[in-house]
Amino acid sequence: IRYLTAGESHGPGLTVIVEGFPSNLPVSREQIDEQLRRRQQGYGRGRRQQIESDRVEVTSGIRFGKTLGTPITMHITNRDFTHWTEKMAVWDAPPENLKQVTRPRPGHADLAGAIKYDHEDIRDVLERASARNTATVVAAGALARQLLARFGIELTAHVVEIGGVRATCIPSEWDALIQAADASPVRCADAEASDRMVARIDEAKAKGDTVGGVFEIVVRGCPVGLGSYAHPDRRLDGRLAGALMSIQAIKGVEIGLGFEAARRFGSQVHDAIAHDGSRYLRPTNGAGGLEGGVTNGEPIVVRVAMKPISTLYTPLMSVDMKTKQPEPAAVERSDYCAVPAASVVGENVAAWVVAEAFVEKFGGDSVEQMEDHVRAYQARVARR
Ligand code: EPS
């Protein structure tokens, strides 16, 4: 399965075309819109989220609520475009009073993008580089998670750190974890840490500054054997890391114990193997569900680090690209902290990557054919 996205943050809208999904999968529009809604939440976001109310318009690939096995086109309208019709006109000449963005923001794609694509107005860079575009990735992931749900695979994500404030008391039980994260304005399952994270965001906001953080994604219900050790580009750990690192502002990805594994003896890192008479068990999950780039049947656990948003209301110094004179960086309306939203993006990106590996292993043109393949494989696994 594959997808292609398009769209500018303040243009008419965003589009994603998903290809390779099996036919006959019942799809819920509400569940796609629910992921889009979750992505728009989170304490620390700017005023833009009061304008948008993201929903998908599906224009191909689904009939009577089921996939056809043909490309699925999903479109999300940018409500804010009504305020940008002249500044983001597709065909008309630029308005006479157009103010170009010429002072690149440190940390953003602005400077390198303007040089690379020969743009004079940095808006031509930032419109596509914007994390607004994660809405399309979430829509694709929201479809993928509906396919995974059919096979008993579920995902969640929760925030474990914002601006140096760490969660310490995290429920280990699945439903409790989801409930606690949903109840927190920053999607942190530790209520006490959640309050301190909110205070940290307020502190950043008061200073015209921003904060980043870390979130954790958990995928449960994966069969043994997704991904492969046979070739580097088939390793599921590498594919997850690459996809998650490709989300705007993401600077680090670790699987299972991650960097902590590098500090311990091997005996304190690896998970002993046991058998309960019907299946293999692991008393610990330091590997985060992946050994040799292959799922081992334990939950996949991935932690992802996001840098602080690079648009600062109290800007760092920059250079005006027209005059080459020192000037404070441009200030665009922005968020103070988008870690809670990024956790939802990460969750749906992970859903996409796992679904891709799942379709590779159990591929079939219809969901019924996939079910046959899964059943046959499960019967074999039970004999091992
Ligand atoms: C973003 C800047 C802000 C964010 C935006 C990402 O947008 P605006 O400049 O319109 O206020 O709100 O994120 C979204 C619009 C979104 O839906 O996630 C940026 O520069 O990356």
Automatic annotation (TrEMBL):
The keyword Cytoplasm does not apply. Its cofactor is FMNH2. FMN binds at R128, A129, S130, Q248, A249, G292, K307, P308, I309, S310, T311, R333. InterPro entries: Chorismate_synth, Chorismate_synth_AroC_sf, Chorismate_synthase_CS. Pathway: Metabolic intermediate biosynthesis; chorismate biosynthesis; chorismate from D-erythrose 4-phosphate and phosphoenolpyruvate: step 7/7. NADP(+) binds at R39, R45. Pfam families: Chorismate_synt. Reduced FMN (FMNH(2)). It catalyses: 5-O-(1-carboxyvinyl)-3-phosphoshikimate = chorismate + phosphate. Keywords: Amino-acid biosynthesis, Aromatic amino acid biosynthesis, FAD, Flavoprotein, FMN, Lyase, NADP. It comes from the Bacteria. Transmembrane segments: none annotated. GO terms for biological process: amino acid biosynthetic process; aromatic amino acid family biosynthetic process; chorismate biosynthetic process. Its EC number is 4.2.3.5. GO terms for cellular component: cytosol. GO terms for molecular function: chorismate synthase activity; FMN binding. Homotetramer. Belongs to the chorismate synthase family. This reaction introduces a second double bond into the aromatic ring system. This is Chorismate synthase. It comes from Alicyclobacillus macrosporangiidus. The lineage of its organism: Bacteria, Bacillati, Bacillota, Bacilli, Bacillales. The gene is aroC.
